[in-house]
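Box 3.1 — From sequence to structure: N-acetyl-gamma-glutamyl-phosphate reductase
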Amino acid sequence: MAVRIFIDGEAGTTGLQIRERLMGRDDVSLISLGAEERKDTDARRRALNEADLSILCLPDAAAVEAISMIENPETKVIDASTAHRVADGWVYGFPEMTEGHENAVRHARFVGNPGCYPTGAIGLIRPLVENALLPATYPVTVNAISGYSGGGKNLIQSMEDSSADDHISSAVFAYGLQLQHKHLPEMQQYSMLEHVPIFQPSVGRYYKGMAVYVPLHLWALPGGVGAARIHQCLSDHYSGHLFAEVAPLEQSSALLRLDPEEMNDTNTIRFHVFANEKSGQCVLAATLDNLGKGASGAAVQNMNLMLGLEEGLGLNFERAA
Ligand SMILES: NC(=O)C1=CN([C@@H]2O[C@H](COP(=O)(O)OP(=O)(O)OC[C@H]3O[C@@H](n4cnc5c(N)ncnc54)[C@H](OP(=O)(O)O)[C@@H]3O)[C@@H](O)[C@H]2O)C=CC1
Ligand SMILES: CC(=O)N[C@@H](CCC(=O)OP(=O)(O)O)C(=O)O
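Predicted structure (token representation):
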């Protein structure tokens, strides 16, 4: 029998993409609310409690409210918002994060889907800290650029509608300039860093796709760690994972430009190591589709694991040509 999935916030950017990925699958059936019911508390409560698994694609406050409405102890939840990513009782929905974590997701009732930027940053940093190549005390900086769909309906409208009061006409802009971005707690905690990293994101005038950068001064690392060891560590860590890959060192070093859109329309995160051995410097980079592995794709991957729908794991994620 097909499992019942309710996407609360189905009409939003993330919700729509999850719906698209699930349409046409015969192992899931979607509980869908009509336009007039999608914000009706009673209708949502009913759907949340009927579902085998609910995926919350809502602002934080609405996600917290949705959790308070769930009475059915069998209902599983994936929350795409920031509300529960570092909360007790929730499993962080990044199955590739560390050994055994895929199993933790598989057996979880409550999964906090990661933020798009943290997926890139944690994906680069955590294996290095776990393997003692990067001290947990290292003062990490994370720079990033995202397509504007990362900001949901509001930012999409500000970028696309020139008549909107809050229209943004810049080709690219930096933000998070107060250094208090909402992704910092999950980035620090799951990267296993002792200090809050500096995180400096930006948005470009293109719809989706992101690149997340972590520059490292290799000369400052203990034990003479070079780019080759870092690359080997990442390659070993992600070996055997369907949705993560590490570009060969020589391929990355031959690149003249890194395209933040290179992984669009996939659920795969790609890692690069760029280095200048002479200066002892290195820039680690992750590229991902902010709506794929950064949000909706990750949610579907987690859903498949939590419901044992293994055959669905490889579905609906075409690699870009
Ligand atoms: N966009 C992205 O790349 C990513 C987004 N996320 C997270 O996912 C969540 C959804 O984001 P996103 O899809 O971008 O946001 P959107 O603004 O595009 O969509 C949110 C949806 O939730 C609906 N909504 C708001 N309040 C309620 C409510 N009380 N009851 C029912 N529905 C409600 C909105 O309705 P209406 O249409 O009327 O506004 C809208 O359709 C957020 O928490 C975001 O932080 C996570 C990772 C990446
Ligand atoms: C471009 C843009 O605005 N991006 C969003 C993050 C998108 C994301 O990862 O979603 P969560 O909101 O679920 O954390 C931001 O910086 O707030």
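Summary of the box: Residues 128 and 237 are 9 Å apart (CA to CA).
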